[in-house]
Design goal:
Helix content: 25-40%
Strand order of the largest sheet: 4-3-7-8-10-9
Distance between the termini: 38 Å
CATH architecture of the largest domain: 2-Layer Sandwich
Number of strands: 10
Radius of gyration: 20 Å
Structural class: alpha+beta
């Protein structure tokens, strides 16, 4: 049942973007500029700038039985998955499959800082620049979040020991992935920022709320897709199972762990969320 629902959500995502593009085309404007940024072709890129498609991405994006029956050429498969437009790789394809993603999308990375204090000017304990393909960035982000969580063990409040993290990993994963999926990659080289202070974690991303999402319905299940190809790729790669539920899932995990509610600071140029530790 879950897989069926996920497939429905993915199909809806594709249909929404396809309908928008088709309306533009029937109006007589066929420019690639009509496409979402991550679907636009990169004029100077060639198929040789892509890697990882046949061995890793394709088997996860298309069912095995369909692959066995379908004998289309690689270029046709890339086009059908919206990774290529007019024979050129898209910005999103280069983020997902590119040999050097940050060459084409300079802001497609994460800045991670562990700070000894409550201010960005306090001493930095550790810092990482997470670069590479989309899946590499997501994997490294998960690893960093996990190793920085502190777990307290109590043996006095229960007959058995009770272990509780200062932050629940699933909540941080959902929020970080949300930032990568919904940020703007256009006209900015700024990364997603994950700043781990002594009293909170700040996760911030360039770009304000998008279209149907506003301050009132943020985190209530409302969603829209500034980057439909990035969202689709994250689904195929196993990092986005339920579209529109990232913030609700994070809130649920935080509440069960005893953490305070999320704090959002929404600006036209970016969104910041503060996550406070469990007491």
């Amino acid at each position: 049942m879950t897989q069926y629902v996920d497939d429905q959500l993915l199909a809806t995502l594709r249909d929404l973007e396809s309908d928008r593009v088709e309306r533009k085309r029937t109006a007589g404007d066929r420019s690639a500029r009509d496409l979402a940024f991550d679907l636009r072709p990169v004029p100077s890129a060639v198929l040789g700038d892509l890697d990882y498609f046949r061995s890793q991405y394709l088997p996860r994006a298309v069912a095995i039985d369909v692959l066995e029956q379908n004998r289309r050429a690689i270029g046709e498969r890339l086009t059908s998955l919206r990774l290529v437009f007019d024979g050129r790789p898209s910005f999103g394809a280069l983020m997902v499959l590119g040999r050097d993603p940050q060459r084409w999308v300079p802001g497609a990375w994460i800045q991670f800082l562990r700070i000894d204090g409550t201010s960005i000017t306090d001493p930095i304990r550790s810092q990482r620049r997470l670069t590479g393909r989309l899946e590499d960035v997501l994997r490294m982000m998960d690893e960093l979040l996990e190793i920085n969580i502190s777990v307290r063990t109590s043996v006095s409040s229960s007959p058995t020991e009770v272990r509780r993290p200062d932050y629940p990993l699933p909540a941080l994963q959902q929020l970080a992935r949300n930032a990568i999926m919904h940020r703007t990659y256009e006209a900015t080289n700024a990364p997603v920022g994950v700043y781990w202070h002594s009293d909170r974690i700040e996760i911030q991303n360039p770009g304000g709320l998008y279209r149907r999402v506003n301050r009132q319905n943020l985190g209530q299940g409302a969603t829209d897709y500034r980057n439909p190809l990035v969202a689709e790729a994250m689904h195929h790669l196993g990092y986005a199972q339920n579209f529109g539920l990232g913030i609700p899932l994070a809130r649920d995990a935080l509440e069960k762990n005893g953490n305070p509610p999320l704090e959002f600071d929404v600006q036209p140029t970016g969104v910041l969320v503060n996550v406070r530790p469990a007491p």
